[in-house]
Amino acid sequence: MKGVEAVADALLRYTDRQYTIPGFPITDLGELTGAELVINEKTALEYALGDSLSGKRAAVIVKNVGVNACADPLLHATVQGLISGVVLVAGDDPDAKGSQTAQDSRYYGELAALPVIEPDPTRCYAGIEAALEASEQFSRVSMVRLTPDVLAADASTNPVPRKDGKGRLSKRTWTMNGRVTAAEELYREMFSWSAASPLNHWDGEPAGAGPASGKTRIVTVHPPPEQVAGIREVRESGRTFVRDHRGVRPPLPQRPPQTMKDRGFSRTFCKCCPFLPMMNILKGRKMPVICDAGCSILGMNRPFDLGIATYGMGASIAVAARSAGIALIGDYALLHSGLNALIDVYEKRLPLLCIVMKNDCTALTGRQPASDPLPYLGWAKPVVCKSDDGWTLERELAVTDRPRTVVVEGVCPEGSSHETIAY
Questions:
Q1: Residues 204, 150: one domain?
Q2: Is there a single domain that holds both residue 35 and residue 130?
Q3: One domain for residues 136 and 51
Q4: Which of 121, 159, 284, 310 makes an SS bond possible with 153, Cβ 3.0 to 4.6 Å?
């Protein structure tokens, strides 16, 4: 069995859904798993996060440059949390044999505070399962870095038991500052996890990571195990990531996460917001939604408390298609990066109600102008209604067995500002 076959078998054993965007060196891996092809990497990760909210483990298989397209939801997931494990399988190409770049995806581990595992051919099964367990333990996406040498090598067939865990979403009562604080505390705990991981093997100099040879094997490459600080020679494929991170220490213990009660208030829609009738219908029907960036994120707060989660700009559509079934998104966010996901959802005829709040501006950041999305939505046959058209809203705000888009048009009053609710 080759490494690519071992990893494929492991992904099929330990995840419930797999997504891919082909590219060297992971094209064969995607085919061996029968992974679902997706329009782009960002949408694939958002689908996986939706699966996570639904209690399903998911894998996203991409090449190195594809990791870049995942950056926004990848970093948001660290702060917002997840439920079931999500693993981002990054196929790196250190020698640029089939890629435009030779980037080293392990640096995203540092940027997004992710657990990063780089198995050798003897640890493919244990590495994939450990990545999913870490994702659930630390409530964020895990990364498994693979290089051509590992995928082409002879691999051990040594499955390990699957041990599904459960992560946590950020508490609804935390402020954004509180969510960051809580995520940082979990990151601090990740250092102890890495140092104690049985995936690593300590046997003196030199140390090897991934396909590189060495008496010592370093598999949990981020955070780096504390034992690496005493090793002089570290061999690795690509840049000197592990060597350069020797001696990196965990962040200091964090204060308790700030709550809205601590702060004294939460934010909600403007007093004269044209979309309040729509929000009241959703609340009256107890329809949970996935919120996006912009004003739609206010659906997470009182008095509506409808939002399950939010993973960044344009993310609500794909996440909702695999979880709540209702996406709440603004016109700017739709054109920014949600349109590709909507295309993929319609191509696959996934049941989704996509509610577009069209106010022709970016109201949360200062009312900068936003382009009209309607010229680019004809293919979706959207229902377009005014925000005060209660009859149409009552009729159209419903989830069916197919994708539907409802564009709700409203005008933000001049001089309006978001309300605060005292705790």
A1: yes
A2: yes
A3: yes
A4: 121
CA-nearest of 298, 295, 287, 277 to 320 is 287
Encode pLDDT of 240-273 as tens digits. 999 999 999 999 998 999 999 999 999 999 999 9
423: number of Cβ within 10 Å: 13
Tokens of 282: 């959703």
CB atoms near residue 20 (< 10 Å): 26
Three-state DSSP class for residue 271: coil
Q: What is the pTM of this model?
A: 0.98
- CB burial string 65-98: b at 16+ within 10 A, e below: bbbebbbbbbbbbbbbbbbbbbbbbbbbbbeeee
Q: Give the integer Cα–Cα distance in Å for 81 and 42.
A: 17
Same-domain check for residues 191 and 269: no
- The share of the chain scoring above pLDDT 70, in percent, equals 100
Dihedral sign, Cα of residue 241, residue 142, residue 36, residue 306: negative
CATH number at residue 290: 3.40.50.970
Q: What is the DSSP string of 229-263?
A: GG-S-EE-SSS-HHHHTTT--PPPPPPPPPBHHHH
Q: Are 112 and 85 in contact (CB under 8 A)?
A: no
